[in-house]
Amino acid sequence: MERSRDLARTRERIVKAALTEFAAHGLAGTRCDDIVRRARVNKRMLFYCFGSKEELYREILRRKFSERANLYEAAPGDIGRAILHWYQAFASDLEWVRLLEWEALDTTGRPLVGERDRRRYLKRTLESLRRAQRDGLVQGDVDLIQLQISIIALTAFPLAFPQMTRLTSGLAPTDPRFQRKRIRFLRWLGERLSSGVAGTPDAQDPRATSKHDRLRTIRQRPPSSGG
């Protein structure tokens, strides 16, 4: 029993060390020597526990996407809250973002780890958007697949391309100041995407120019890029 617990602890140390290395360097750029040095284990244990560096990498991806499954399930149907949900999910796990980037660079053509499950999760979030559209929470003429892809882009891009974020905004995407501004902008954008749906003044009469409409337009102007 003690030997079994020791082996389980060793496996977890290897996984934790490998996650850091793979997120930083990808599969091809990561050396087994660096993993075992970080995990403080013998290289023989890495191969005993996982068989190969490639299998260790796939095990980490399997675990990551299993952890992320609840995020797909919990994605709100309301477009504004959905955008914030995904931004906060990406921002809280940069290793996940980096693993996705390395995965995108894989040109071997192999099936993705957990591809079937990931397709199913994405279909569920798409169905959530469809329900929101039927309920009048998303404009009826929006292409929901393109909207779903755009939500991923809006929320992941600043974190996946930190150099572009820094060059454009002068701030790193992990800087709390940038994150506060990003959340304000995403909240504003979500409100705009939801505006004009059934039951709102604009949907009833696009030419409405009441005081209420003018004030709402002012409130929906994009947030200032200032502090």
Protein model, in words:
This protein has helices at 2-29, 32-39, 43-50, 53-74, 79-91, 94-104, 115-134, 144-160, 162-169, 176-194, 201-204, 211-219. With 227 residues, the chain is mainly alpha-helical. The chain folds into 2 domains: 1-51, Arc Repressor Mutant, subunit A; 65-219, Tetracycline Repressor, domain 2. Helix 1 (2-29) crosses helix 2 (32-39), helix 1 crosses helix 3 (43-50) and helix 4 packs parallel to helix 7.
Element string (H = helix, E = strand):
HHHHHHHHHHHH
Q: Summarize model confidence as the mean pLDDT.
A: 84
Counting helices, strands and paired strands, the structural category is mainly alpha
Alpha carbon gap, first and last residue: 57 Å
Largest sheet: none
- Report the CATH topology name of the largest domain: Tetracycline Repressor, domain 2
Q: Helix fraction?
A: over 70%
What number of structural domains do the residues give? 2
Architecture per CATH nomenclature, i.e. the level-2 architecture of the largest domain: Orthogonal Bundle
Q: What is the CATH H-level superfamily of the largest domain?
A: Tetracycline Repressor, domain 2
**Estimated share of beta-strand residues:** under 5%
Number of helices: 12
Under CATH at level 1, the class of the largest domain stands as Mainly Alpha
- The count of DSSP E runs of length 2 or more, i.e. the number of strands, is 0
Shape: elongated
> Spans of 5+ residues with little confidence (pLDDT < 50)?
198-220
